[in-house]
Design brief:
By secondary structure, this protein is an alpha/beta fold. The protein has a domain of about 100 residues: Beta Barrel (Barwin-like endoglucanases), CATH 2.40.40.20. Helices cover about 25% and strands about 10% of the residues. Strands 6-10-7-9-8 form a 5-stranded mixed β-sheet. Helix 5 packs across helix 6. The longest helix has 17 residues. The protein is globular. The mean pLDDT is about 90.
Amino acid sequence: NERSRIGDFPAVNDAFPGGVLADEILTPGKKQIRALFVTGGNPLLTMANSARLRQAFESLELLVCLDIFQGETASLAHYVLPCTSPMQRPDLPFIFPLMLGLQSKPYLQATRPVIPPQGEQRDEATIYLDLCRAAGVDLFGSKVAQRMLEWGKRRHARKHPGKQPAIPQEFLLDALLRLTGQGSFKALLGEPHGRRREEHRADDFLGQRVLTESGKVDLAPAPLLAAAEGLEAHFERERRDANRLKLITRRAITTHNSWTHNHADFVRAGTNHLYMHPEDAARLGLGEGALADVRTQTATVRVPVALLEDLMPGTVALPHGWGHQHARGLSVAGRTRGVNVNLLAADGA
């Protein structure tokens, strides 16, 4: 039942809207955020009104980033704690693919590390376990979890004296498989192409996981219906202002979010582009490669145009994840000329 200090938003899965983070940091008062831990994320590129969020992060008394390199957010951090990459730890696609239903064809696949950690790299779970012990608190607020994982770490250190002390991830993944009737981690390794699981069944996707009082998914909650009451008026305003272009984002086939731009082969163009239908470009006097200013109430960015007939007229698309001028640890990405689309997005309650 916790609600945000700014905007009075309810928590969803123990999380508040990212659009109020800058206000939560900058607004004085009880429960004002003065310290922030960022795990494997880059909010200064991926969240709305990036310029204001940068000001907020610069005002923090403590900013700690757990990451595999020093991107835009980590470049502001007081401490950057080096994590292992997916190539440096055992892995099992379980929570996101299976429990959240993100696999069209359900399967399991176990993998071991391909390369060892370097220097003081550790997995995020071990880092947080050590931070909790040093701070005198328990992981997840649970003494049982803290003690069990501490025991597992000591056991792992005894079995692997030459390695960085860490939570025994393969042991935990093996226990997860056994507890859910999927066999052992070692047995799954013997199936290098993965193991197909039962196909999704109609009418049984969520099973017993709906936590509402009725046991049903509420498709029309009261806040949604209240917001929908203004849709007709909003639609009419949009029709009256039909000449104003609508901005969307899009994926680029050679990149993923903000973290794959530090290799020259992935960023050969050196920038993102504003994709525009040829009819809109002709109306505005713009051609392929011309520079266009994209303005919102929040900011303005200048970006080269790329013509795309597949795009709906009246719509322009600007891929996200670019704008690495502040990334001290990304030598290749830092030389690109792309712009951050989230500079244009509004934040706040």
